Amino acid sequence: MKQLYYDVKKCLGCKSCEIACAVAHSLTGDLFKAFKEEVLSLPRKKVLASKDKNYPVSCRHCKDPVCVDACMAAALVYDKEKGMVLHDDKRCVGCWMCVMVCPYGAIRPNIKTKLPLRCDKCKDKDEPSCVKACPTGAIIWQEELSLKV
Question: Residue 149: is its pLDDT beyond 90?
């Protein structure tokens, strides 16, 4: 299964990935139309800066996710086949426990919808929008086992 990886040496901090993520999760899927939507789409990814480096941050879909354990409504489940933490919006009670326990700070609350926002790897697309939008190739989408370290 494919995973998202980041090369922080290549990240410019341009936030193209954040914009692409927000647009991809908007109702229209179009940058200019998305700004006119009643509820603005928010990115599931964020770029943080520290000590002259930029760090793209998004859900890592941990194999032993503490967010799933912390979810009192059982709205989060880890799907081993997909290698993803899946969220059931209908079950979620908006308690933000997943936001609080994520060790990477990768889940953000959406105050308007009362639902957590987390990367879903653009589950309906062949490739996540952030990967396509990154001008330097800092975001890598590849098979988990093929990564050379």
Answer: no
